[in-house]
């Protein structure tokens, strides 16, 4: 909004020229989202405690320590994250850029699904919430709308092409399969982040790491000069996504202040589904869907551990892990919660560096 209002006056007021620069607006978006989170956080947590008697339901079959340390902690902290992200993005982004609205559609659409899931868990005092079938129907419907919108804005000659990491010019034309593929990317990313959100601070830091990576990727892919130098597929207009990525980082930092062990609030499905979906949508727009699987490899690992556990138990009656997702497996092995969280953060950083190396190693 500031860009749209102030840049037309940049020739008369030199200071307004700053709003032309993505780096300046991205920094402003990050700072704004972080401040909003800090300001509204305490009041939001008090309100959630008043509305949620007993807090988020804790799994009875989970780690025993959770029944003692996490009982009574309110959930739906994702509302704080979404509010901060939304305000910051609207203030600092170019609102004429269609890609911004696509990411906001997925983010807030998935946020509504997550909110309904959290609400049912609280009202029914049961950790199951919204049925898996309804949740997937909602997620795929939003993903379909977003995917069609992306195709309308993208270069028609490249609309169904998949870029392969670590290759220079090879593009795989998926044809009609591209639409269901990108829908699966958005839904898969959303649910993988949701599965990772099981310990204090575990999910939000890898989310911020991934958002930082995609801020850089969006900036480079959206710049024809940088894209040509790095020999990556240029996608005009995607540089603006750096602003929403920065807002995600700012909102995440503000949330982490209250989610640091021992957590005062959980993000819930409201936060994890929405921010996971946002990462998936951005990877589709900048044509780095497969790189997301590397940068977000921690989320992939968590999701795969659940699929392996379920498949093994149904086929053989035996479990691969002591408990899934895999972070609970290590808790069951005796690792302290902060140990699991910090080591998983380290894994997230390593995977992010490997993913970013695909920009140059070709």
SSE inventory with pairings:
Elements: H1 2-6, H2 22-51, H3 64-69, H4 78-92, H5 98-124, H6 132-153, E1 161-163, E2 171-173, H7 178-196, H8 204-221, H9 224-230, H10 241-259, H11 268-285, H12 289-295, H13 297-316, H14 326-332, H15 337-357
Antiparallel strand pairs: 1-2
Describe it for me?
This protein is mostly helical and 362 residues long. It has one domain. It contains 15 helices and 2 strands. The protein has helices at residues 2-6, 22-51, 64-69, 78-92, 98-124, 132-153, 178-196, 204-221, 224-230, 241-259, 268-285, 289-295, 297-316, 326-332, 337-357, and strands at 161-163, 171-173. It has a two-stranded antiparallel sheet with strand order 1-2. A hairpin with a 7-residue loop joins β1 (161-163) and β2. α5 runs antiparallel to α11 (268-285). The longest helix has 30 residues, at 22-51. The mean pLDDT is 92.
Q: Order of SSEs, N→C?
A: HHHHHHEEHHHHHHHHH
- The whole-number mean of residue pLDDT values reads 92
SSE-based structural type: mainly alpha
Low-confidence stretches: none
Give the C-alpha Rg.
Answer: 20 Å
Helix content, binned percent: 55-70%
Largest sheet: 2 strands, antiparallel
- The overall strand count is 2
Number of helical stretches of at least 4 residues: 15
Shape call: globular
Provide the domain count.
1
């Amino acid at each position: 909004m500031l860009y749209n209002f102030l840049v037309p006056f940049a020739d008369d007021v030199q200071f307004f020229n700053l709003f032309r620069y993505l780096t300046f607006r991205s920094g402003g978006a990050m700072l704004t989202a972080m401040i909003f989170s800090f300001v509204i956080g305490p009041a939001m947590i008090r309100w959630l405690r008043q509305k949620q008697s007993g807090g988020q339901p804790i799994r009875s079959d989970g780690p025993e320590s959770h029944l003692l340390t996490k009982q009574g902690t309110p959930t739906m902290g994702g509302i704080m994250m979404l509010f901060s992200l939304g305000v910051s993005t609207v203030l600092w982004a170019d609102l004429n850029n269609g890609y911004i609205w696509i990411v906001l559609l997925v983010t807030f659409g998935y946020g509504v699904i997550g909110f309904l899931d959290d609400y049912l868990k609280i009202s029914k005092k049961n950790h199951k919430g919204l049925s898996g079938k309804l949740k997937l129907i909602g997620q795929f419907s939003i993903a379909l709308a977003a995917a069609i919108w992306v195709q309308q804005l993208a270069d028609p000659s490249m609309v169904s092409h998949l870029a392969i990491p670590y290759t220079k010019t090879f593009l795989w034309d998926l044809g009609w399969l591209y639409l269901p593929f990108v829908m699966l990317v958005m839904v898969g990313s959303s649910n993988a982040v949701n599965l990772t959100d099981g310990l204090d601070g575990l999910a939000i830091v890898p989310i911020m790491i991934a958002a930082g990576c995609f801020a850089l990727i969006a900036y480079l892919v959206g710049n024809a000069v940088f894209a040509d130098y790095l020999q990556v597929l240029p996608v005009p207009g995607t540089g603006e996504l750096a602003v929403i990525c920065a807002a995600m980082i700012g909102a995440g930092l503000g949330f982490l202040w209250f989610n640091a062990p021992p957590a005062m609030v959980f993000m819930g499905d409201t936060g994890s589904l929405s921010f996971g979906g946002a990462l998936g949508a951005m990877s589709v727009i900048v044509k780095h869907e497969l790189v997301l699987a590397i940068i977000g490899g921690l989320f992939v690992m968590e999701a795969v551990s659940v699929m392996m556990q379920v498949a093994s138990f149904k086929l053989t009656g035996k479990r691969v892990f002591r408990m899934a997702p895999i972070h609970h497996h290590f808790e069951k092995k005796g690792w302290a919660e902060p140990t699991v969280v910090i080591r998983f953060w380290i894994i997230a950083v390593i995977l992010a560096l490997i993913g970013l190396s695909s920009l140059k190693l070709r």
